[in-house]
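Researcher: Quick test of sequence recovery. Tokens follow.
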């Protein structure tokens, strides 16, 4: 077990009708004016946005609004939000939506609180020294951005999808009402469940000694999400299943499932980020499409870990043949992905990258062959290209 620090400053308000508390929670922050940041029509059609405005009005809190955030949130929208906040004197951002909206809000917060181009932080040219305070009303269980220290933005110039982490961007509060996810299409729900799973799986697969307590929390979280995603496949308005997945989303990406480890592998996320940047695919679906190929490519470098995952999460019978257990576990995970309608290859994802595109993806993922990715096995540009090729499928 390695030394670790665990910091989770976000206040969580969980349960039915909790969005009505938005105004009072923001009032506690002592702000002067709020930016209400959201996505597209669903928050309007459902009446959620009107309820949020009513809550702010009841507390006498002035606000400006900016909608139009899309999946794989765009830098142009971030820059639009920065200009709006500066013009309106905004000093607090309320994200009403899923991970894309929260990530966009964090980027806007960085851009307002720091001089210069906000993309510099995501391009790793500078380090942020502050961020506007942010609150979130979650409408999809997936990214875990409501409790994480990270955000991911896509720059349309070059189709680069990049992440940035700092403690400054952690939400002051997160309102989690599972009812707000009832209207999600099944594909979006299941894609979100994969994202939740992967945030813990990325931490679980590592090259460090591991902590029994952390492993137990991780394995329980994974089994719980898998069980409840199957329930939601048949009964999308099952409140308890929605609640289990929503809470797992927050716990999966707030650092809890990585305590005592080397931080985890994260190669699957890095591989998917480039797919998302180039092809604009749903993040969770992209992760499902690439994970099995990555796992088979690297599993021999940590057979004990893959065998434990197979036995404790996927209930594969114990065997002294760790390689067989590892491969059976990978196959079982892919079978699960298929059972919830998620792709297990790039072909099934609906994309067919050419050899030229694969080389471009690998070059971007390796930052022009200046970095490697992964912990289970360190992957260079050539390894990355191999995985993309193998993941194409038929």
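Model:
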């Amino acid at each position: 077990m390695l030394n670790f620090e665990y910091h989770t400053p976000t206040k969580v308000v969980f349960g039915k009708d909790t969005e009505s508390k938005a105004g009072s929670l923001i009032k506690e922050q002592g702000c002067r004016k709020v930016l209400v940041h959201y996505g597209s029509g669903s928050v309007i059609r459902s009446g959620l946005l009107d309820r949020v405005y009513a809550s702010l009005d009841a507390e006498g809190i002035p606000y400006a609004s900016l909608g139009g955030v899309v999946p794989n949130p765009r830098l142009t929208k971030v820059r639009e939000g920065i200009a709006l906040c500066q013009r309106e004197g905004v000093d607090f951002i309320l994200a009403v939506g899923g991970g894309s909206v929260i990530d966009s809000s964090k980027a806007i917060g960085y851009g307002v609180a720091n001089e210069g181009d906000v993309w510099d932080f995501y391009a790793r040219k500078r380090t942020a020294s502050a961020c506007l305070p942010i609150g979130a009303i979650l409408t999809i269980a997936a990214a875990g951005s409501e409790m994480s220290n990270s955000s991911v933005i896509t720059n349309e110039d070059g189709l680069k999808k990049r992440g940035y982490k700092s403690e400054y961007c952690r939400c002051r509060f997160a309102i989690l009402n599972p009812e707000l996810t009832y209207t999600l299409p099944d594909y979006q729900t299941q894609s979100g469940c994969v994202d939740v799973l992967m945030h813990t799986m990325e931490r679980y697969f590592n090259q460090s000694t591991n902590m029994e307590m952390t492993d137990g929390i991780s394995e329980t979280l994974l089994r719980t999400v898998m069980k409840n995603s199957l329930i939601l496949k048949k009964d999308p308005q099952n409140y308890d299943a929605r609640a289990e997945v929503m809470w797992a989303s927050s716990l999966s990406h707030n650092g809890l499932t990585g305590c005592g480890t080397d931080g985890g592998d994260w190669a699957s996320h890095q591989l998917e980020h480039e797919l998302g940047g180039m092809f604009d695919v749903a993040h969770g679906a992209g992760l499902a499409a690439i994970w099995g190929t990555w796992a088979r490519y690297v599993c021999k470098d940590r057979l004990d870990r893959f065998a434990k995952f197979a036995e404790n999460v996927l209930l594969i019978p114990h065997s002294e043949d760790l390689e067989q257990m590892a491969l059976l576990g990978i196959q079982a995970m892919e079978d699960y992905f298929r059972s919830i309608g998620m792709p297990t290859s790039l072909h099934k994802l609906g994309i067919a990258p050419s050899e030229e595109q694969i080389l471009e993806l690998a070059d971007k993922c390796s930052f022009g062959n200046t970095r490697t990715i992964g912990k289970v096995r360190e992957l260079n540009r050539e390894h990355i290209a191999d995985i993309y090729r193998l993941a194409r499928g038929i």
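The CA atoms of residues 169 and 217 lie 25 Å apart.
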